[in-house]
TrEMBL record:
PROSITE patterns: FE2OG_OXY. Residues 181-285 form the Fe2OG dioxygenase domain. This is 2og-fe oxygenase protein. One of its GO terms (molecular function) is oxidoreductase activity. The keyword NAD does not apply. SUPFAM superfamilies: Clavaminate synthase-like. It holds the Pfam family 2OG-FeII_Oxy.
Length: 327
């Protein structure tokens, strides 16, 4: 299918919501987000409140992590962690329908890393618990990464508040599903184009399963494309400094009765440079079901939806799957 470079995703300036000078400022932001999510399921944001220095420190931390010897990263494999935190090796994220493994790296240099809420005890079962951290100096990884996680956690929650108001709900509705939200962050290094095989994507076409995704792209390293159903074509998304990409997942589409879209997207790194990105996924409480429509006959919880989606793609134990399905 074609890619039309003349079409770009809407850009929303969130400063009017963060620092309004009148009620009209907030109303404008809410309306722009509502329109973007209804049309595209994606939009770009500036004026988001995450300092540029913090973003750059996060990207440098990723470089520090991904330059470690492979054997050191494999010791932190998320498959050995009950909370699915840590390092992801090649072939662990094959989506249904993909012809071959994602090329987030060929097997000899594959790199991705997950963190989430920092809880001392493993609970429900494995959604909450401690992170694992590489053996790097505090200032080289843990410090900048954790500071960034907290900032994008806050941004993701704010986007949820805006989305709710766009549907006519008060921001206080957040209380129904954000007492202890499940917020996961994934850090990725994509290989240069020369290191991939024909037909192999950085990430194959997919929709996100759950809530709000807050995506940072390394400036100048394009690769993300969004499928526009109406135009039947892939829209390239520029990687601009200090600009975030926001999108809605399947859960938001379902909870909103289809008023907000969950769009397919993919990553194709066409350059001969590595490409770094970082996505923070803000879903909500694991035990929460649709708060927008309490009479919705589909009462699947966030945790049940997650297991339904990722049980086909990742190595979740049968015990975890059955416990969540029964909750």
């Amino acid at each position: 299918m074609s890619t039309d470079n003349s079409i770009v995703l809407p850009v929303v300036d969130l400063s009017g919501y963060l620092h309004p000078t009148s009620p009209a400022d907030k109303a404008r932001v809410i309306a722009e987000v509502r329109e973007a999510c209804s049309e595209y399921g994606f939009f770009q944001v500036k004026g988001h409140g995450v300092p540029l220095d913090m973003q750059k420190a996060l990207l440098q931390s990723l470089r520090n992590l991904f330059s470690l010897p492979q054997e050191e990263k494999l010791k932190l494999s998320f498959l050995n962690n009950p909370c699915r935190r840590g390092y992801e090796a090649s072939g662990m994220s094959v989506r249904e329908g993909d012809a071959m493994a994602d090329s987030k790296e060929p097997f000899w240099v594959q790199k991705a890393f997950y963190i989430g809420r920092e809880d001392p005890v493993i609970e429900r079962p494995g959604f909450y618990g401690p992170n694992v951290w590489p053996d790097l100096a505090e200032e080289d990884f843990h410090g900048p990464v954790w500071e960034y996680y907290q900032a994008t956690d806050k941004l993701g929650k704010m986007i949820w508040e805006i989305l709710l108001q766009g549907l006519g709900h008060p921001p206080s509705l957040m209380e129904a599903f954000s007492k202890r939200p499940f917020v996961q962050m994934k850090m990725i290094r994509y290989p240069p184009a020369s290191a991939t095989l024909p037909g192999q994507y950085g990430v194959g076409a997919h929709t996100d399963f759950g809530g709000v995704t807050v995506l940072l792209q390394e400036a100048g390293r394009e690769g993300l494309e969004v499928w526009h159903e109406g135009r039947q074509e892939w829209l390239p998304v520029p990687a601009m400094e200090n600009m975030y990409i926001i999108n809605c997942g399947d859960m938001i589409q379902n909870w909103s009765g289809g008023q907000y879209k969950s769009a397919k997207h993919r990553v194709i790194n066409k350059s001969d440079h590595e490409r770094l990105s970082c996505a923070t996924f803000w879903h909500g409480d694991v035990g929460a079901s649709n708060p927008l429509n309490p009479s919705d006959p589909d009462r699947e919880t966030v945790g049940q939806l997650l297991v339904k989606r990722f049980g086909r793609q990742f190595s979740l134990s049968k015990t975890v799957v059955e416990q969540v399905r029964a909750s």
